[in-house]
Protein backbone atom coordinates (compact mmCIF):
# COMPACT_ATOMS: atom_id res chain seq x y z
CA UNK A 1 0.00 0.00 0.00
CA UNK A 2 1.27 3.49 -0.89
CA UNK A 3 0.13 6.62 0.94
CA UNK A 4 0.94 9.66 -1.17
CA UNK A 5 1.07 13.35 -0.28
CA UNK A 6 1.12 12.75 3.48
CA UNK A 7 2.60 15.05 6.10
CA UNK A 8 4.84 13.57 8.81
CA UNK A 9 6.85 15.20 11.61
CA UNK A 10 4.35 18.11 11.58
CA UNK A 11 5.65 19.72 8.37
CA UNK A 12 7.37 17.19 6.07
CA UNK A 13 5.56 16.14 2.89
CA UNK A 14 6.29 12.53 1.88
CA UNK A 15 5.03 9.31 0.35
CA UNK A 16 4.89 6.30 2.69
CA UNK A 17 4.85 2.64 1.64
CA UNK A 18 3.49 -0.12 3.86
CA UNK A 19 4.49 -3.71 3.20
CA UNK A 20 2.77 -6.28 5.37
CA UNK A 21 2.73 -5.01 8.96
CA UNK A 22 5.53 -2.47 8.62
CA UNK A 23 6.54 0.80 7.02
CA UNK A 24 8.93 -0.16 4.25
CA UNK A 25 9.78 3.16 2.60
CA UNK A 26 9.49 6.92 3.18
CA UNK A 27 10.53 9.23 0.35
CA UNK A 28 9.59 12.60 -1.04
CA UNK A 29 8.15 10.72 -4.02
CA UNK A 30 7.54 7.01 -4.55
CA UNK A 31 6.25 5.33 -7.70
CA UNK A 32 3.38 2.87 -7.26
CA UNK A 33 4.21 -0.79 -7.65
CA UNK A 34 2.11 -2.94 -10.01
CA UNK A 35 -1.38 -3.48 -8.52
CA UNK A 36 -0.42 -1.58 -5.36
CA UNK A 37 -3.23 0.20 -3.52
CA UNK A 38 -2.63 3.96 -3.63
CA UNK A 39 -4.18 6.37 -1.12
CA UNK A 40 -3.97 10.13 -1.57
CA UNK A 41 -3.59 11.79 1.83
CA UNK A 42 -4.19 15.25 0.28
CA UNK A 43 -1.66 16.79 2.66
CA UNK A 44 -3.24 15.36 5.78
CA UNK A 45 -1.06 14.70 8.82
CA UNK A 46 0.00 11.06 9.09
CA UNK A 47 0.64 10.17 12.72
CA UNK A 48 1.45 7.03 14.69
CA UNK A 49 -1.72 5.35 15.90
CA UNK A 50 -2.82 6.70 19.26
CA UNK A 51 -2.67 4.69 22.49
CA UNK A 52 -5.32 5.19 25.16
CA UNK A 53 -3.52 4.27 28.37
CA UNK A 54 -6.55 3.95 30.70
CA UNK A 55 -9.85 2.34 29.70
CA UNK A 56 -12.44 -0.06 31.10
CA UNK A 57 -13.50 -1.95 27.99
CA UNK A 58 -16.36 -4.14 29.15
CA UNK A 59 -17.85 -1.34 31.25
CA UNK A 60 -17.63 0.94 28.22
CA UNK A 61 -19.30 -1.65 26.00
CA UNK A 62 -22.10 -2.08 28.55
CA UNK A 63 -22.51 1.69 28.75
CA UNK A 64 -23.51 1.84 25.09
CA UNK A 65 -26.84 0.29 26.05
CA UNK A 66 -27.24 2.45 29.15
CA UNK A 67 -28.95 5.73 29.98
CA UNK A 68 -26.72 8.68 30.82
CA UNK A 69 -27.86 10.10 34.17
CA UNK A 70 -25.44 12.95 34.78
CA UNK A 71 -23.95 16.14 33.33
CA UNK A 72 -23.83 17.36 30.67
CA UNK A 73 -26.82 15.34 29.40
CA UNK A 74 -28.77 15.57 32.67
CA UNK A 75 -28.50 18.46 35.12
CA UNK A 76 -31.47 18.32 37.49
CA UNK A 77 -33.86 15.90 39.15
CA UNK A 78 -36.76 16.50 36.80
CA UNK A 79 -34.60 15.89 33.73
CA UNK A 80 -33.37 12.64 35.28
CA UNK A 81 -36.90 11.46 36.03
CA UNK A 82 -38.01 12.22 32.48
CA UNK A 83 -35.04 10.45 30.97
CA UNK A 84 -35.48 7.32 33.07
CA UNK A 85 -39.21 7.16 32.40
CA UNK A 86 -38.68 7.63 28.66
CA UNK A 87 -36.14 4.80 28.61
CA UNK A 88 -38.40 2.53 30.68
CA UNK A 89 -41.26 3.09 28.22
CA UNK A 90 -39.20 1.38 25.50
CA UNK A 91 -38.50 -1.78 27.53
CA UNK A 92 -40.31 -5.08 27.55
CA UNK A 93 -41.88 -6.32 30.79
CA UNK A 94 -39.27 -7.20 33.40
CA UNK A 95 -36.35 -5.82 31.39
CA UNK A 96 -33.57 -4.04 33.26
CA UNK A 97 -32.94 -0.31 32.92
CA UNK A 98 -29.26 0.52 33.39
CA UNK A 99 -28.12 4.07 34.08
CA UNK A 100 -24.59 5.46 34.20
CA UNK A 101 -22.62 8.61 35.05
CA UNK A 102 -24.89 9.84 37.85
CA UNK A 103 -23.59 12.70 39.98
CA UNK A 104 -25.18 14.05 43.12
CA UNK A 105 -25.26 17.57 41.63
CA UNK A 106 -28.29 16.30 39.64
CA UNK A 107 -30.63 15.17 42.43
CA UNK A 108 -28.59 14.68 45.60
CA UNK A 109 -27.97 11.34 47.32
CA UNK A 110 -30.68 9.31 45.56
CA UNK A 111 -31.72 5.89 46.85
CA UNK A 112 -34.21 3.09 46.12
CA UNK A 113 -37.16 5.24 47.12
CA UNK A 114 -36.20 8.01 44.70
CA UNK A 115 -35.83 5.48 41.88
CA UNK A 116 -39.11 3.76 42.84
CA UNK A 117 -40.96 7.04 42.43
CA UNK A 118 -39.40 7.54 39.01
CA UNK A 119 -39.61 3.97 37.64
CA UNK A 120 -41.62 1.56 39.84
CA UNK A 121 -42.28 -1.24 37.34
CA UNK A 122 -38.83 -2.17 36.03
CA UNK A 123 -35.65 -3.23 37.80
CA UNK A 124 -33.35 -0.18 37.69
CA UNK A 125 -29.69 0.17 38.55
CA UNK A 126 -27.85 3.47 38.21
CA UNK A 127 -24.08 3.78 38.48
CA UNK A 128 -22.38 6.82 40.01
CA UNK A 129 -19.88 8.67 37.84
CA UNK A 130 -17.04 7.49 40.08
CA UNK A 131 -17.78 3.86 39.19
CA UNK A 132 -17.81 2.95 42.88
CA UNK A 133 -21.53 3.12 43.63
CA UNK A 134 -24.67 1.50 42.22
CA UNK A 135 -28.16 2.58 43.28
CA UNK A 136 -30.90 -0.04 42.83
CA UNK A 137 -34.66 0.38 43.07
CA UNK A 138 -36.98 -2.00 44.92
CA UNK A 139 -37.78 -4.00 41.80
CA UNK A 140 -34.07 -4.53 41.21
CA UNK A 141 -33.50 -5.63 44.81
CA UNK A 142 -36.33 -8.13 44.48
CA UNK A 143 -35.09 -9.40 41.10
CA UNK A 144 -31.61 -10.18 42.44
CA UNK A 145 -32.93 -11.57 45.74
CA UNK A 146 -31.12 -9.02 47.89
CA UNK A 147 -33.96 -7.32 49.77
CA UNK A 148 -33.83 -9.62 52.78
CA UNK A 149 -30.41 -11.22 52.20
CA UNK A 150 -28.35 -9.80 55.04
CA UNK A 151 -25.18 -11.19 53.48
CA UNK A 152 -25.66 -8.85 50.50
CA UNK A 153 -23.15 -5.95 50.65
CA UNK A 154 -25.89 -3.31 50.56
CA UNK A 155 -26.02 -0.15 52.63
CA UNK A 156 -28.76 -0.49 55.27
CA UNK A 157 -30.38 2.07 57.54
CA UNK A 158 -32.25 0.66 60.54
CA UNK A 159 -32.03 -2.74 58.87
CA UNK A 160 -33.65 -1.65 55.60
CA UNK A 161 -31.65 -1.70 52.38
CA UNK A 162 -31.27 1.80 50.90
CA UNK A 163 -30.50 0.37 47.45
CA UNK A 164 -26.98 1.82 47.58
CA UNK A 165 -24.21 -0.67 46.80
CA UNK A 166 -20.56 0.36 47.14
CA UNK A 167 -17.51 -1.26 45.55
CA UNK A 168 -19.31 -4.50 44.77
CA UNK A 169 -19.29 -4.84 40.99
CA UNK A 170 -18.19 -8.46 41.13
CA UNK A 171 -20.99 -9.37 43.53
CA UNK A 172 -23.59 -7.56 41.43
CA UNK A 173 -22.46 -9.38 38.29
CA UNK A 174 -23.16 -12.70 40.00
CA UNK A 175 -26.76 -11.57 40.59
CA UNK A 176 -27.43 -10.09 37.15
CA UNK A 177 -26.54 -11.17 33.62
CA UNK A 178 -23.09 -12.76 33.42
CA UNK A 179 -22.88 -12.28 29.66
CA UNK A 180 -20.00 -10.06 28.62
CA UNK A 181 -21.01 -7.35 26.15
CA UNK A 182 -19.56 -7.45 22.64
CA UNK A 183 -16.62 -5.14 21.99
CA UNK A 184 -17.25 -4.62 18.28
CA UNK A 185 -18.96 -1.24 18.57
CA UNK A 186 -16.56 0.37 21.03
CA UNK A 187 -13.49 -0.97 19.23
CA UNK A 188 -14.64 0.69 16.01
CA UNK A 189 -15.36 3.91 17.87
CA UNK A 190 -11.78 3.92 19.14
CA UNK A 191 -10.56 3.24 15.59
CA UNK A 192 -12.52 6.25 14.32
CA UNK A 193 -10.41 8.42 16.63
CA UNK A 194 -7.16 6.92 15.32
CA UNK A 195 -6.60 4.67 18.35
CA UNK A 196 -4.65 1.47 17.70
CA UNK A 197 -3.70 0.50 21.27
CA UNK A 198 -5.51 0.31 24.62
CA UNK A 199 -4.71 -0.47 28.24
CA UNK A 200 -7.59 -1.92 30.23
CA UNK A 201 -7.04 -0.83 33.82
CA UNK A 202 -9.91 -2.67 35.53
CA UNK A 203 -8.57 -3.86 38.86
CA UNK A 204 -10.75 -7.00 38.99
CA UNK A 205 -9.40 -8.46 35.72
CA UNK A 206 -8.22 -12.04 36.13
CA UNK A 207 -7.42 -14.98 33.83
CA UNK A 208 -11.05 -15.26 32.64
CA UNK A 209 -11.11 -11.63 31.52
CA UNK A 210 -7.67 -11.95 29.93
CA UNK A 211 -8.86 -14.99 27.95
CA UNK A 212 -12.05 -13.19 26.90
CA UNK A 213 -10.02 -10.26 25.59
CA UNK A 214 -7.69 -12.64 23.73
CA UNK A 215 -10.65 -14.40 22.12
CA UNK A 216 -12.22 -11.07 21.11
CA UNK A 217 -8.92 -10.07 19.56
CA UNK A 218 -8.46 -13.38 17.69
CA UNK A 219 -11.93 -13.27 16.11
CA UNK A 220 -11.56 -9.66 14.99
CA UNK A 221 -14.04 -8.19 17.46
CA UNK A 222 -11.27 -6.19 19.14
CA UNK A 223 -9.17 -4.30 16.58
CA UNK A 224 -6.66 -2.67 18.92
CA UNK A 225 -3.63 -4.14 20.63
CA UNK A 226 -4.48 -4.48 24.31
CA UNK A 227 -2.54 -4.37 27.57
CA UNK A 228 -4.49 -5.83 30.49
CA UNK A 229 -4.06 -4.72 34.09
CA UNK A 230 -5.72 -6.72 36.83
CA UNK A 231 -5.27 -8.41 40.17
CA UNK A 232 -2.65 -10.86 41.47
CA UNK A 233 -4.16 -13.73 39.48
CA UNK A 234 -2.58 -12.26 36.34
CA UNK A 235 0.93 -12.70 37.74
CA UNK A 236 1.09 -16.11 36.05
CA UNK A 237 -0.63 -15.20 32.77
CA UNK A 238 1.31 -15.49 29.52
CA UNK A 239 1.06 -12.92 26.73
CA UNK A 240 -0.72 -13.87 23.51
CA UNK A 241 -0.81 -12.22 20.10
CA UNK A 242 -2.11 -8.70 20.49
CA UNK A 243 -2.94 -9.03 24.21
CA UNK A 244 -0.29 -8.60 26.89
CA UNK A 245 -0.23 -8.70 30.66
CA UNK A 246 -0.12 -5.31 32.35
CA UNK A 247 0.44 -4.01 35.83
CA UNK A 248 -1.10 -5.27 39.08
CA UNK A 249 -3.81 -2.68 39.69
CA UNK A 250 -4.63 -1.54 43.25
CA UNK A 251 -7.89 0.37 43.55
CA UNK A 252 -7.40 2.53 46.63
CA UNK A 253 -10.16 4.38 48.48
CA UNK A 254 -9.12 6.69 51.28
CA UNK A 255 -12.07 5.70 53.49
CA UNK A 256 -11.24 1.98 53.25
CA UNK A 257 -7.52 1.50 52.68
CA UNK A 258 -6.02 -2.00 52.76
CA UNK A 259 -3.83 -3.22 55.60
CA UNK A 260 -0.43 -1.67 54.94
CA UNK A 261 1.74 -4.76 55.48
CA UNK A 262 -0.56 -6.87 53.31
CA UNK A 263 -0.38 -4.29 50.54
CA UNK A 264 3.41 -4.27 50.71
CA UNK A 265 3.44 -8.07 50.50
CA UNK A 266 1.20 -7.96 47.41
CA UNK A 267 3.52 -5.44 45.74
CA UNK A 268 6.56 -7.60 46.49
CA UNK A 269 4.81 -10.66 45.04
CA UNK A 270 4.03 -8.93 41.77
CA UNK A 271 7.48 -7.37 41.55
CA UNK A 272 8.99 -10.83 42.00
CA UNK A 273 6.88 -11.94 39.01
CA UNK A 274 8.51 -9.12 36.99
CA UNK A 275 5.26 -7.23 37.06
CA UNK A 276 4.96 -3.55 37.88
CA UNK A 277 2.08 -2.14 39.93
CA UNK A 278 -0.41 0.67 39.36
CA UNK A 279 -2.39 2.63 41.95
CA UNK A 280 -5.77 4.29 41.48
CA UNK A 281 -5.21 7.68 43.10
CA UNK A 282 -7.89 10.38 43.09
CA UNK A 283 -7.27 11.94 46.53
CA UNK A 284 -4.27 13.21 48.43
CA UNK A 285 -4.75 10.40 50.97
CA UNK A 286 -4.76 7.69 48.28
CA UNK A 287 -1.52 9.02 46.87
CA UNK A 288 0.23 9.36 50.24
CA UNK A 289 -0.67 5.74 51.06
CA UNK A 290 0.51 4.41 47.69
CA UNK A 291 3.80 6.29 47.85
CA UNK A 292 4.43 5.09 51.40
CA UNK A 293 3.96 1.48 50.29
CA UNK A 294 6.29 1.89 47.32
CA UNK A 295 8.88 3.61 49.51
CA UNK A 296 8.68 0.67 51.94
CA UNK A 297 8.94 -2.02 49.24
CA UNK A 298 10.98 -0.21 46.63
CA UNK A 299 9.75 0.69 43.17
CA UNK A 300 10.63 -0.91 39.85
CA UNK A 301 10.50 0.43 36.31
CA UNK A 302 6.90 0.69 35.16
CA UNK A 303 5.26 1.29 38.53
CA UNK A 304 2.63 3.93 37.93
CA UNK A 305 -0.01 6.23 39.38
CA UNK A 306 -3.41 6.27 37.70
CA UNK A 307 -5.20 9.63 37.54
CA UNK A 308 -2.93 11.55 39.90
CA UNK A 309 -5.94 13.76 40.54
CA UNK A 310 -4.37 15.72 43.41
CA UNK A 311 -0.57 15.99 43.44
CA UNK A 312 0.82 18.80 45.62
CA UNK A 313 4.52 19.73 45.22
CA UNK A 314 5.82 17.56 48.08
CA UNK A 315 4.15 14.46 46.60
CA UNK A 316 5.39 15.32 43.12
CA UNK A 317 8.90 15.19 44.58
CA UNK A 318 8.20 11.71 45.97
CA UNK A 319 6.91 10.54 42.57
CA UNK A 320 10.14 11.78 41.01
CA UNK A 321 12.35 10.09 43.59
CA UNK A 322 10.54 6.77 43.16
CA UNK A 323 10.80 6.93 39.36
CA UNK A 324 7.07 6.48 38.82
CA UNK A 325 4.96 7.01 35.71
CA UNK A 326 1.66 8.93 35.78
CA UNK A 327 -1.32 8.16 33.52
CA UNK A 328 -3.83 10.98 33.81
CA UNK A 329 -7.06 12.40 32.30
CA UNK A 330 -6.67 16.01 31.07
CA UNK A 331 -10.30 16.10 29.92
CA UNK A 332 -11.60 15.78 33.47
CA UNK A 333 -10.81 19.49 33.83
CA UNK A 334 -13.19 20.31 30.96
CA UNK A 335 -15.80 17.70 31.91
CA UNK A 336 -15.76 18.06 35.71
CA UNK A 337 -13.87 21.26 36.40
CA UNK A 338 -16.88 23.23 37.59
CA UNK A 339 -17.75 20.47 40.07
CA UNK A 340 -14.14 20.40 41.26
CA UNK A 341 -14.23 24.16 41.85
CA UNK A 342 -17.33 23.66 43.97
CA UNK A 343 -16.44 20.44 45.81
CA UNK A 344 -12.64 20.16 46.07
CA UNK A 345 -10.87 21.90 48.94
CA UNK A 346 -9.42 25.24 47.86
CA UNK A 347 -5.91 24.23 48.93
CA UNK A 348 -6.02 21.23 46.58
CA UNK A 349 -7.42 22.98 43.50
CA UNK A 350 -4.04 24.21 42.14
CA UNK A 351 -2.83 20.59 42.09
CA UNK A 352 -5.74 19.03 40.15
CA UNK A 353 -4.80 16.89 37.15
CA UNK A 354 -1.41 18.49 36.71
CA UNK A 355 0.42 18.16 33.42
CA UNK A 356 3.31 20.54 32.78
CA UNK A 357 4.66 20.10 36.30
CA UNK A 358 5.16 16.37 35.63
CA UNK A 359 6.88 17.01 32.31
CA UNK A 360 9.12 19.73 33.76
CA UNK A 361 10.09 17.37 36.61
CA UNK A 362 10.96 14.55 34.19
CA UNK A 363 8.07 12.30 35.27
CA UNK A 364 6.90 10.04 32.40
CA UNK A 365 3.37 11.26 31.63
CA UNK A 366 0.69 9.61 29.51
CA UNK A 367 -3.06 10.03 29.14
CA UNK A 368 -6.12 7.85 28.94
CA UNK A 369 -9.84 8.41 28.62
CA UNK A 370 -11.05 6.35 31.63
CA UNK A 371 -14.08 5.37 29.54
CA UNK A 372 -16.91 4.95 30.39
CA UNK A 373 -16.25 7.47 33.17
CA UNK A 374 -14.81 10.01 30.75
CA UNK A 375 -15.18 10.90 27.07
CA UNK A 376 -13.55 8.44 24.66
CA UNK A 377 -12.39 11.16 22.25
CA UNK A 378 -8.61 11.62 22.70
CA UNK A 379 -8.63 14.80 20.61
CA UNK A 380 -11.01 16.47 23.06
CA UNK A 381 -8.69 15.37 25.86
CA UNK A 382 -5.71 16.88 24.06
CA UNK A 383 -7.51 20.19 23.62
CA UNK A 384 -8.40 20.15 27.32
CA UNK A 385 -4.69 19.73 28.09
CA UNK A 386 -4.01 22.84 26.03
CA UNK A 387 -6.87 25.04 27.27
CA UNK A 388 -7.35 23.84 30.89
CA UNK A 389 -10.83 25.29 30.62
CA UNK A 390 -13.91 24.02 32.49
CA UNK A 391 -17.29 23.67 30.80
CA UNK A 392 -18.35 27.09 32.07
CA UNK A 393 -15.16 28.67 30.75
CA UNK A 394 -13.07 28.92 33.92
CA UNK A 395 -9.37 28.39 33.24
CA UNK A 396 -7.91 26.13 35.92
CA UNK A 397 -4.17 26.24 36.74
CA UNK A 398 -3.16 27.63 33.37
CA UNK A 399 0.49 27.06 34.29
CA UNK A 400 -0.23 23.32 33.83
CA UNK A 401 -1.30 23.70 30.18
CA UNK A 402 0.59 22.00 27.35
CA UNK A 403 1.39 22.84 23.75
CA UNK A 404 -0.63 20.93 21.14
CA UNK A 405 2.44 18.84 20.38
CA UNK A 406 2.96 17.94 24.04
CA UNK A 407 -0.73 17.06 24.33
CA UNK A 408 -0.49 14.75 21.32
CA UNK A 409 2.57 13.07 22.82
CA UNK A 410 0.46 11.93 25.81
CA UNK A 411 -1.19 9.44 23.44
CA UNK A 412 1.87 8.44 21.36
CA UNK A 413 4.03 6.56 23.87
CA UNK A 414 4.13 2.74 23.70
CA UNK A 415 1.55 0.73 25.63
CA UNK A 416 4.31 -0.94 27.66
CA UNK A 417 6.15 2.35 28.30
CA UNK A 418 3.60 5.11 28.89
CA UNK A 419 5.21 8.51 29.02
CA UNK A 420 8.31 7.37 27.11
CA UNK A 421 9.41 9.11 23.91
CA UNK A 422 6.58 9.40 21.37
CA UNK A 423 6.59 6.80 18.64
CA UNK A 424 7.72 8.03 15.21
CA UNK A 425 6.88 7.20 11.63
CA UNK A 426 10.11 5.61 10.45
CA UNK A 427 11.10 2.81 8.10
CA UNK A 428 10.78 -0.54 9.85
CA UNK A 429 8.19 0.60 12.39
CA UNK A 430 4.94 -1.31 12.81
CA UNK A 431 2.35 0.40 10.61
CA UNK A 432 -0.01 1.57 13.36
CA UNK A 433 -1.10 4.83 11.76
CA UNK A 434 -3.83 7.44 11.70
CA UNK A 435 -4.35 9.91 8.89
CA UNK A 436 -6.00 13.24 9.63
CA UNK A 437 -8.14 15.20 7.18
CA UNK A 438 -5.92 18.28 7.58
CA UNK A 439 -2.24 19.14 7.97
CA UNK A 440 -0.97 19.53 11.53
CA UNK A 441 -0.78 23.34 11.32
CA UNK A 442 -4.58 23.38 10.96
CA UNK A 443 -5.27 20.54 13.39
CA UNK A 444 -3.32 22.17 16.22
CA UNK A 445 -5.54 25.27 16.21
CA UNK A 446 -8.31 23.34 17.99
CA UNK A 447 -7.55 19.67 18.57
CA UNK A 448 -11.12 18.93 19.61
CA UNK A 449 -12.21 19.45 15.99
CA UNK A 450 -9.74 16.93 14.52
CA UNK A 451 -11.22 14.30 12.20
CA UNK A 452 -9.48 11.05 11.29
CA UNK A 453 -9.93 9.86 7.72
CA UNK A 454 -8.09 6.52 7.95
CA UNK A 455 -6.67 4.27 10.67
CA UNK A 456 -4.38 1.28 10.17
CA UNK A 457 -3.32 -1.30 12.78
CA UNK A 458 -0.24 -3.30 11.81
CA UNK A 459 -0.81 -2.31 8.18
CA UNK A 460 -4.47 -3.36 8.14
CA UNK A 461 -7.20 -0.80 7.62
CA UNK A 462 -9.50 -0.64 10.65
CA UNK A 463 -11.24 2.68 9.95
CA UNK A 464 -12.19 4.66 6.86
CA UNK A 465 -14.24 7.82 7.05
TrEMBL record:
<dbReference type="GO" id="GO:0016810">
    <property type="term" value="F:hydrolase activity, acting on carbon-nitrogen (but not peptide) bonds"/>
</dbReference>
<feature type="domain" description="Amidohydrolase 3">
    <location>
        <begin position="37"/>
        <end position="461"/>
    </location>
</feature>
<protein>
    <submittedName>
        <fullName>Hydrolase</fullName>
    </submittedName>
</protein>
<dbReference type="InterPro" id="IPR011059">
    <property type="entry name" value="Metal-dep_hydrolase_composite"/>
</dbReference>
<dbReference type="InterPro" id="IPR032466">
    <property type="entry name" value="Metal_Hydrolase"/>
</dbReference>
<keyword id="KW-0378">Hydrolase</keyword>
<dbReference type="InterPro" id="IPR013108">
    <property type="entry name" value="Amidohydro_3"/>
</dbReference>
<dbReference type="Pfam" id="PF07969">
    <property type="entry name" value="Amidohydro_3"/>
</dbReference>
